[in-house]
Amino acid sequence: MKIAAPTVAVVQDTRRIKADGTYPLKLRITYQRLRKYYSIGVDLTPTLWTDVEDKTKTRRELRDIRERNGEFVTRAEKVIRGLDPFSFEAFEGLYFQSETENTRELSLRSDVAHQFNKYIAQLNQEGRAATANSYGNALASLVDHKKGLKFADITADFLKGYEKKMILAGRSITTVGIYLRALRTLINQAIDNGTLTRKDYPFGKNRYVIPSGVNIKKALTLAEVEKIFHYPAIPGSQEDKARDLWLFTYLCNGVNMKDICQLRWRNIDGDNIKFIRAKTARSTKSRQRPVVALLTETAHDVIKKWGNPDHRPDARVFPFLPDNITPQRELELTHYQIKFVNRWMKRIAQKLGIDKDVTTYFARHSFATVLKRSGAPIEFISESLGHTDLRTTENYLDSFEDDVKREYTKALLNFNKTVLAND
Predict the structure, then answer these.
(1) What residue numbers bound the domain in which 348 lies?
(2) Least enclosed by CB within 10 Å: which of 22, 85, 98, 187?
(3) Would you say residue 1 lies in a domain?
(4) Are the CB atoms for 387 and 254 separated by under 8 Å?
């Protein structure tokens, strides 16, 4: 006669009530008419347990309890399937060993630093070194605020305290926003894997709203761009190279240095250059908008002067990055080019009397702003920048210059202001 397999269930042990009016839930194993009970660390009132057992009731709290109970049952059944023959002693040895392993796994899943480091490793594996570095900075800042940080510690009050401490330490609102958006990504993952529930989510209305940095306008006037264009740099000098690369960014739809470093000869077709911005390369194809820039005579001259003599389609247009380079080294060399241009452009601006910290960032914003001031439609500017949302373009556009405002406001008093004497 075949012996029946053990059965498993989670039940409420009503033999002894606790001081708070609850009874413990226990894992019950039944085998050959013998029953043994094992604590699962959950206590419920009889009323709540009745609701849990009533499958017609589906509120979130009840679903969470049923799901957790199901996990205990599933783990016990998995241990039992590996036992032949079954004995309570063998079951307890394996079950509590796996429980210890599960407890450690749960502990790691709830540890903010551990999950950050896992995600940073994933980003590096995907070649996203810049994003990985940003997440590393966010982690260092959060751990400095609270050692041994757990996801359960992150409440709206915790986030408000973190923001206050950062601002008092002289960090910008923009930096706070960057770090907390990284944390929000990890919290969303924790909700997805069951470490947190949706009710634990600390962000949003009436909770904590991640601050947005003020959009500081960084655009030059057309007159200032003209000064840079005509700056008498010594041919072949560092100033000459930096000025040319800055103008290339300005003339080619505000292309950033990372994309300049990534350009291949296959991206150029006559007087057109077409590429996907590295910033949007991971977006879905429907969200990607290729940037198509018209190569002016000046842009062609920059390529001829500083470009790569190797014109194979897969060769880079500018020889700033070697082939077979690691993502981290690529990031370092790209940042070197940015710092190089910014350092020499700052000197050029000082010599020209331009009282602005002229950087590659200025070139992109100046491209958009000068087009706007010339009357170009915002749709054209948006397409030129590779934006998929007009609102993003609107944020790029600088306000009109003071002299332009002055001309417009003259219309407010565009009448004879002389008081006529009475006859």
Answers:
(1) 222-407
(2) 85
(3) no
(4) no
